[in-house]
């Protein structure tokens, strides 16, 4: 595999960024993940994953404008990059192939 | 915003603070924003209290290595931007490169190091000297409030600037002015012969002192009580050296010395006085033993009077009060003794002033009549300081010059560094750290040298500096500071010059500009040689002046004269001893008198031309008692009249004057006339003397001063006997004299000296100044020539190819030689133009101090010029000839 390593949690975060399309930032990602996985999600964990994804080039980010919410602090909005999408695609394909390669017997 | 809506629930503030201290600066805003947003959501979902707990938990989860690392590395980046100058990695690299360069250019490194070491060592030595000169008398606890009362008297054309005062001045002033805490007086007693176990030894430095001496000055007592030591008559306090000499112990209080006339009881032993004292006595005896000290007169000044004032005293007020009281006392006395009012005296241009001389200023600033000791010379302090500074400057210019010249070699390095991202500032830092490193090595070597050189410097400067003084923190600190300043000063120009190289050009190899635009370097060379020439001219003139003094006709003959001292011990046997000496073959003449042109035994008196006591036309002059053999023995020329003679019984009231004195009394007409003087101030009686002769002026004090009026009286002064000898066998003669001496006083050794040696001793300090000036100018010449050598070496190296091509095209050795030497010779000639007027001016000022001096002649400048040019030529030629004779094939082949 020529691309950088992608951990399980990172993969989840990356998928969430793709899901939230345009409105992805720390709080929304964490809330979305909590809702869907029922795991204990911490903001710090999400952020570290986001910054790592950014370093690896799977997401890009930009600071949004200041709003009246959250004491006027700006938020960093994340969006998935082409590389990120392709990587997700590849991973899905690999999994699908692997799934279909499982002998039926084992599920009986 | 928070403050506008205080009712909105807030997360715990300390958790926010925690976040602020952990999170990277660039992420803080967005992360805190997210935290707060989530908090607001949670408040609604789970309530305030739980939301706050959750907030804290979340904040704690942010304390992870990831964020901390990001924060710290960001911090380190900003640190690097600011502190790259002291980045240890870079400094290590700078030093490594500096060391490699030093090894690569050993010649330049050695020249630089030698120059810096010389400069620093000179500076340190001079610092020690100056520091020592400035520290005189500071060891007394009350040093800053002890003053000496100085008197200034002016009347009828006589002027006295005195370090001494009337006997009762201290007492009277202390009683009248509460500002004065205490006073003490000192007076030279002269030599005392102390007898112990049948051995008699003269002790020269003996003083009368008041019992308050040890209250004002701090001298450490080894035994005895300082408060009472000088209370009793015939008490005696001596120093450690003398105590050990006589008794081999310092615990000798209660012991006694028995001399012919009295018995001294030892009441104290003090440590030897520190060298940094303006007076230096071996023995103190009570002032009460000196009868003169009890006199109440205000017209005789013989006592050095010191006062300690209270801390809150107003000196100006005190001084003016003293001035007034002094006038009152003088007025009373003048009226009573010579029937003149003070007003008359003041009106006719007279003056009687009082000044307070701070104790700590006496050594360097006071040079008055009646000083207890020869004081220091402030000129020497200035001259030495300036010379030390100049030598350091020369060395520093060498460094600047050579580093700039060699800089072209390092252009590629600087280009590379810049390409790799060095800023200009960090290159400056690099080159400054190089000069700092070199200066540091130089300082180290200098310190080591200091220990080696100190004894010879002590000898040269007439000092007794100790090794401890080298290690005093003050010197170490100031030398570190000096080194820092030196390295910054000498490294600054090369550093900025080199750091301004443009990498794109430098890496292509285009920077011959470095050597061509050499006006800066040229002016440094000119400056170096100017200083060298000034020092050279100065040295020649000092030496010529000293030689002049040595050969000058002093008006008496000082060759072949042998003086025997302490004749007083012989008592009445002195005359028979003198007669017996005349029988020794080889002794041509003998005279008995303690007054000699070469010693410090002096006595002065004021003579009047009238018996009424009017000061109009009075002359204050030296007043020496001599015998009839004095004038012929010393070869003094009698101009008019006759010498004293045994044949005239009236000669006890006769006087012989020197030319200056005769002139003051109206010239030759005074011959045969009477002059008058007070016979003691108390009894107000005039005695008269008939002038029977006038002698040619002869020098009896330093040649710095004009000859002053002098009178001879006829009598027997048993200070010393002077012999005119004409023997080839001097040791034999002296042993004969010694055996005759031993026959009379076997317990005392004969003490003798030659007059020409005594004379030379008077000019010892000038001779030492001359020696120091010579050493310094030698150093200066050495440093300047080394600098020149470095520059020539470099010029030749740069032009190796050029010379090769010139030779191939037919240039002769002479052509090449001229090419290389011309530009350096021009520099030396410019330096001469600058230096000659300066040297002339400075030496004119030095010579002004001498009443008898040489003219500054033109050949001195020619000699200095020729010498400098030859040294420069020699330096340059060595390299130039080597370059000129080099085989062009070799130089052109080298790439």
Compile the SSE list and pairings:
The complex is a heterodimer of chains A (108) and B (895).
Chain A: H1 8-20, H2 26-37, H3 43-56, E1 59-63, E2 76-80, H4 82-101
Antiparallel strand pairs in A: 1-2
Chain B: H1 13-22, H2 25-46, H3 48-61, H4 65-83, H5 88-104, H6 106-134, E1 146-155, E2 158-162, H7 169-176, E3 180-196, E4 199-209, H8 213-216, E5 221-224, E6 235-239, H9 240-247, E7 256-258, E8 263-270, E9 283-286, E10 304-309, H10 315-338, H11 342-347, E11 351-358, H12 359-365, H13 378-406, H14 411-419, H15 424-461, H16 467-470, H17 473-499, H18 503-506, H19 513-516, H20 519-551, E12 561-564, H21 574-582, E13 587-592, E14 604-607, E15 619-626, H22 630-634, E16 638-641, E17 654-658, H23 659-664, E18 674-678, E19 686-695, E20 710-714, E21 721-725, H24 730-744, E22 752-754, H25 755-762, H26 764-798, H27 800-808, H28 813-847, H29 858-884, H30 888-893
Helix pairs in contact in B: 1-3, 2-3, 5-6, 5-15, 6-13, 6-15, 6-17, 6-26, 13-17, 13-20, 13-26, 15-17, 20-26, 20-28, 20-29, 26-29, 28-29
Fold and architecture overview:
Chain A has 108 residues and is mainly alpha-helical. Chain A has a single domain, classed as Arc Repressor Mutant, subunit A (Orthogonal Bundle), CATH 1.10.10. In chain A, 55% of the residues lie in helices and 9% in strands. Chain A has 4 helices and 2 strands; from the N terminus they run αααββα. A two-stranded antiparallel sheet of chain A has the order 1-2. In chain A, helix 1 crosses helix 2 and helix 2 packs across helix 3. The longest helix of chain A is centred in the last third of the chain and has 20 residues. In chain A, 28% of the residues are buried. The mean pLDDT of chain A is 85. Chain B has 895 residues and is α+β, with helices and mostly antiparallel strands. In chain B, the strands form 3 sheets. In chain B, strands 1, 2, 3, 4, 5, 6, 7, 8, 9, 10 and 11 form an 11-stranded mixed β-sheet that branches. In chain B, strands 14, 15, 16, 17, 18, 19 and 20 form a 7-stranded mixed β-sheet that branches. In chain B, strands 13-21-12-22 form a 4-stranded antiparallel β-sheet. In chain B, helix 2 packs antiparallel against helix 3 and helix 5 packs across helix 6. The longest helix of chain B has 38 residues. The two termini of chain B are 74 Å apart. At the A-B interface, helix 2 and helix 3 of A face helix 2 of B. Chain A: InterPro entries: Tscrpt_reg_PadR_N (IPR005149), WH-like_DNA-bd_sf (IPR036388), WH_DNA-bd_sf (IPR036390). Chain A: It holds the Pfam family PadR. Chain A: This is PadR family transcriptional regulator.
């Amino acid at each position: 595999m020529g691309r950088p390593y992608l951990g399980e949690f990172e993969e989840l975060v990356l998928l969430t960024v793709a899901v939230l399309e345009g409105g992805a930032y720390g709080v929304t990602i964490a809330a979305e993940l909590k809702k869907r996985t029922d795991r204990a999600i911490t903001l710090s964990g999400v952020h570290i994953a986001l910054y790592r994804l950014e370093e690896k080039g799977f997401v890009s980010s930009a600071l949004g404008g200041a709003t009246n919410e959250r004491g006027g602090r700006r938020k960093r909005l994340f969006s998935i990059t082409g590389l990120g999408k392709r990587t997700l695609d590849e991973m899905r394909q690999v999994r699908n192939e692997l799934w279909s390669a499982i002998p039926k017997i084992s599920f009986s | 915003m928070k403050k506008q809506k205080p009712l909105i629930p807030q997360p715990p503030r300390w958790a926010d603070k925690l976040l602020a201290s952990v999170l990277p600066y660039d992420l803080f805003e967005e992360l805190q924003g997210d935290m707060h947003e989530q908090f607001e959501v949670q408040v609604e979902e789970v309530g305030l209290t739980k939301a706050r707990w959750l907030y804290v938990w979340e904040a704690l989860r942010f304390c992870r290595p990831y964020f901390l690392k990001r924060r710290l590395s960001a911090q380190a980046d900003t640190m690097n931007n600011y502190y790259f100058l002291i980045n240890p990695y870079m400094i290590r690299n700078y030093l490594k490169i500096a060391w490699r360069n030093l090894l690569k250019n050993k010649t330049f490194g050695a020249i630089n190091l030698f120059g810096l070491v010389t400069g620093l060592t000179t500076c340190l030595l001079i610092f020690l000297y100056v520091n020592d000169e400035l520290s005189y008398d500071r060891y007394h606890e009350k040093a800053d409030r002890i003053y000496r009362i100085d008197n200034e008297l002016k009347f009828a054309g006589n002027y006295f600037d005195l370090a001494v005062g009337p006997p009762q001045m201290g007492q009277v002033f202390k009683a009248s002015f509460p500002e004065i805490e205490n006073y003490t007086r000192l007076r030279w007693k002269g030599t005392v012969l102390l007898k112990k176990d049948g051995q008699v030894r003269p002790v020269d430095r003996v003083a009368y002192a008041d019992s308050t001496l040890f209250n004002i000055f701090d001298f450490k007592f080894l035994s005895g009580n300082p408060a009472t030591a000088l209370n009793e008559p015939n008490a005696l306090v001596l120093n450690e050296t003398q105590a050990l000499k006589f008794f081999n112990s310092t615990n000798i209080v209660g012991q006694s010395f028995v001399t012919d006339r009295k018995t001294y009881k030892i009441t104290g032993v003090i440590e030897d006085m520190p060298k940094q004292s303006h007076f230096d006595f071996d023995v103190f005896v009570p002032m009460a033993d000196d009868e003169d000290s009890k006199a109440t007169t205000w017209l005789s000044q013989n006592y050095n009077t010191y006062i300690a004032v209270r801390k809150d005293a107003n000196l100006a007020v005190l001084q003016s009060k003293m001035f007034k009281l002094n006038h009152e006392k003088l007025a009373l006395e003048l009226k009573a003794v010579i029937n003149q009012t003070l007003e008359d005296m003041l009106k006719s241009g007279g003056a009687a002033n009082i000044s307070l001389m701070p104790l700590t200023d006496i050594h360097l600033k006071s040079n008055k009549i009646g000083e207890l000791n020869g004081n220091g010379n402030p000129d020497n302090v200035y001259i030495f300081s300036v010379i030390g500074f100049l030598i350091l400057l020369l060395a520093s210019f060498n460094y600047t010059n050579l580093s700039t010249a060699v800089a072209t070699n390092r252009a590629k390095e600087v280009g590379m560094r810049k390409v790799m991202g060095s800023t200009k500032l960090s290159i400056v830092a690099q080159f400054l750290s190089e000069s700092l490193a070199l200066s540091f090595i130089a300082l180290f070597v200098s310190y080591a040298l200091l220990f080696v050189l100190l004894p010879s410097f002590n000898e040269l400067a007439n000092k007794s500096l100790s090794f401890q003084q080298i290690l005093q923190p003050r010197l170490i600190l100031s030398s570190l500071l000096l080194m820092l300043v030196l390295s910054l000063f000498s490294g600054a120009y090369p550093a900025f010059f080199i750091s301004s190289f443009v990498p794109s050009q430098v890496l292509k190899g285009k920077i011959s500009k470095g050597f061509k635009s050499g006006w800066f370097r040229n002016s440094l060379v000119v400056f170096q040689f100017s200083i060298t020439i000034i020092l050279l001219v100065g040295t020649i003139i000092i030496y010529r002046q000293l030689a002049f003094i040595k050969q000058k006709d002093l008006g008496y003959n000082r060759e072949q004269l042998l003086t025997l001292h302490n004749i007083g011990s012989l008592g009445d046997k002195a005359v028979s001893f003198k007669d017996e000496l005349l029988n020794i073959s080889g002794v041509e003449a003998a005279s008995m008198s303690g007054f000699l042109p070469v010693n410090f035994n002096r006595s002065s008196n004021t003579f009047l031309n009238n018996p009424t006591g009017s000061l109009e036309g009075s002359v204050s002059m030296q007043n020496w008692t001599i015998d009839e053999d004095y004038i012929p023995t010393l070869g003094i020329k009698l101009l008019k009249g006759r010498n004293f003679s045994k044949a005239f019984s009236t000669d006890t009231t006769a006087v012989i004057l020197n030319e200056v004195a005769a002139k003051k009394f109206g010239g030759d007409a005074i011959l045969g006339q009477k002059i008058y003087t007070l016979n003691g101030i108390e009894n107000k009686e005039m005695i008269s003397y008939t002038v029977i002769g006038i002698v040619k002026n002869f020098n009896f004090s330093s040649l710095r001063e004009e000859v002053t009026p002098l009178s001879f009286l006829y009598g027997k002064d048993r200070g010393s006997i002077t012999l005119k000898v004409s023997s080839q066998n001097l040791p034999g003669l002296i042993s004969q004299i010694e055996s005759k001496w031993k026959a009379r006083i076997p317990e005392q050794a004969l003490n003798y000296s030659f007059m020409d040696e005594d004379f030379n001793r008077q000019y010892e300090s000038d001779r030492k100044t001359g020696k120091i000036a010579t050493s310094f100018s030698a150093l200066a010449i050495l440093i300047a020539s080394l600098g020149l050598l470095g520059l020539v070496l470099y010029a030749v190296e740069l032009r190796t190819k050029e010379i090769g091509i010139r030779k191939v095209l037919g240039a002769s050795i002479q052509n090449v030689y001229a090419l290389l030497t011309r530009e350096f010779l021009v520099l030396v000639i410019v330096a001469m133009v600058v230096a000659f007027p300066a040297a002339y001016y400075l030496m004119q000022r030095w010579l002004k101090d001498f009443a008898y001096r040489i003219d500054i002649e033109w050949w001195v400048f020619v000699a200095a010029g020729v010498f400098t040019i030859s040294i420069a030529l020699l330096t340059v030629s060595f390299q130039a000839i080597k370059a000129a004779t080099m085989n062009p094939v070799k130089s052109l082949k080298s790439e």
